[in-house]
Structures are given as C-alpha cells and as structure tokens.
Write a structure and sequence with these properties.
Length: 147
C-alpha cells in the first residue's frame, strides 16, 4: 500500500495500492469499498454422550463396530467427520466424513468400524457452512467389545 486516507464517512476508506507484477509495469488502484458483516450462531458445542459396541456374529467379526451418540448446541450441522488416531491423538489412522440431515434436534448416531483391538483417540467434528465444533474421547476396542 502506498497510501491510505479516509474521508468524513468512517465506513469508507480510500486506498492506493501498487502492484508490480513483472518488475517494470506499475498498476495503481484507487477506490471505495464497503462490506457487510453477518453474525451467525454456528455450532457451539459437541458432546459424545454414549459409545456402544455393536454385537456381530463370528462370521461378521472382521471389524468391530461402535455407535457414538452425539449431541450439539447452536445451529444444526450438515456434515460429520470422524478422525480415528492413536491413543496420544497424534497419528491419524483413518478419516471418514459424511453429509447428514438434522431437522429438529441435534442428536445423531455415528457408526464407525475399527479394524483391530486397541485403544484409540476419536475426534468427531460437526460442521455447517459457517462453523465447526469438535468432541474427543478415548475408546478401548477389544475384538467386538468397547469400553
């Protein structure tokens, strides 16, 4: 910016900007601008209120399935992402994102598969066009059972 000034209207600013795209050519831009700001509520809070292991037959026991019951406050989410990591929450093992439709109350069940027994960090993120909120938990998966 080579210079900036404002006139008596505090919402309007005049700026002179110099670009030098190829070293020898100078472009000067002067003008007025105005913008509006919309404040949206967003998704304020996410909570994992229940984790339930899904019982499967021995022939289906390739993966352990766990249902996570999730609630949120604020605006209604349009998508859910789940990141499964090591117990320190540092090394990501899998990421799954899905669109969701929540029409009235923010209460949903997210089902995820775990390939092998172990302890995992799970991050569930609910999002919409303007916000995201995250809940985390540690889960121990023991060959079809979880705690």
């Amino acid at each position: 910016t080579t210079g900036a000034s404002s006139n008596s209207d505090s919402s309007t600013t005049v700026e002179s900007v110099e670009d030098n795209p190829d070293g020898g050519c100078h472009i000067y831009r002067n003008g007025y601008y105005r913008t509006g700001i919309s404040v949206v509520e967003g998704i304020l809070e996410v909570n994992i209120i229940q984790m339930t292991s899904i019982q499967m037959t021995e022939s289906q026991a390739e993966n352990s399935l766990v249902d996570f019951v999730v609630t949120c406050q604020g605006s209604l989410p349009t998508d859910v992402c789940t990141v499964v990591s090591d117990p320190t929450c540092q090394v990501s093992k899998s990421v799954a994102c899905d669109p969701i439709i929540v029409t009235d109350e923010c209460l949903l069940t997210v089902r995820r598969a775990f390939e092998e027994p172990g302890t995992y960090c799970i991050n569930i993120t609910l999002g919409d066009d303007t916000s995201q909120a995250l809940a985390s938990a540690l889960i121990s998966v023991n060959g079809g059972e979880s705690t």
